[in-house]
Amino acid sequence: MILIISVDNDTIADEICTWLSYQNKQFVRLSENQHINKVCFDFKNNIFKISIGAIEYELGDFTSVFYRNGGIYYETIPGDIDSILVDFYNSELKSISEFIYYYFRVNGVRIFGNLLTKEVNKLEVLFLAKSLGLKIPDTYILSEMNDLKQIDMSQAYITKAISEMKPIIVEYGLYLNYTHELDVNNIHNKKENIIPSLIQRKIHCLYEIRVFFFEKQVWAIATFDFSGSVDIRNIKEKDKRYLPLILPPELKKKILILAKKLALKCGTVDLLKSDEEYYFLEVNPLGQFHQVSYYGNYQIEKHIADLL
Question: Which of 102, 127, 197, 222 has the maximum number of C-beta atoms within 10 A of its C-beta?
Answer without folding.
Answer: 222
